[in-house]
Structure formats: C-alpha cells, structure tokens
Amino acid sequence: MINHQFATDLSLIRVFNSRWSAMIDVPIISNARSSKYEHNAPPNLNDERHSMHSFGLGDIRVAAYRWLFNPATSPKANVQVGLGIKFATECL
C-alpha cells in the first residue's frame, strides 16, 4: 500500500486597525493511494495495482479577531478573541 498526501493553506489576513482584523483560510488537499491487495480476491492471483485519487478544497474558514485590551496601553500582555465560521467542502 502506498499513500501520498499533500495539503497547503492559502490565508489572507486584513488588519483594519490596532484592534481589529479578519482572516480567510482556504486549504487545498490532494491525496493518492495505491494497493495491490485491497481489490483482489484472493490475493496474489493478480499483481495489478489499483489506485484512488482525490483533490479539492478543505473546509474554508472566515473569522474576525479583536484584541480585548488596547495594544498601545498593554504592550506586554493582551488577549485576542475571534469569531468565525467554517464552510464544509468536499474533495473531488
């Protein structure tokens, strides 16, 4: 059995001011799998390798973030909160 997986994230972040920002994240995924044994019955009668492939977008995320304390007056410690939504997508 041979498995190949590739995933990358394309992210775009926009900073509106010192406290607010927004983000969109689009993962791109590619998978390939091949095996000699999964589709043959009984094994070893046929040495043919069977393969499966998938490619597509992962779950796309959109979010907004805000620093709770003013970064100008709290340079050593701060807390960031965010609210977002994840859109379920499928590989083809």
The global form is elongated
Compute the CA-based radius of gyration.
Answer: 22 Å
- The whole-number mean of residue pLDDT values reads 88
Query: What proportion of the residues is helical, as a percent range?
Result: under 10%
Structural class: mainly beta
* Low-confidence sequence ranges: none
Question: How many strands appear in the DSSP assignment?
Answer: 5
The total count of helices amounts to 0
Task: Give keywords.
92 residues; mainly beta; five-stranded antiparallel beta sheet
How does this model look, in words?
With 92 residues, this protein is an all-beta fold. The chain contains no helices and five strands. Strands 1, 2, 3, 4 and 5 form a five-stranded antiparallel beta sheet that branches. Strand 1 (2-15) and strand 2 (20-35) form a beta hairpin. It is elongated. The chain starts with a strand and ends in a 5-residue tail after the last strand.
Please write out the topology:
Layout lengths: L1 E14 L4 E16 L14 E8 L2 E8 L12 E8 L5
What would a concise description of this structure say?
The protein has strands at residues 2-15, 20-35, 50-57, 60-67, 80-87. It is mostly beta strands and 92 residues long.
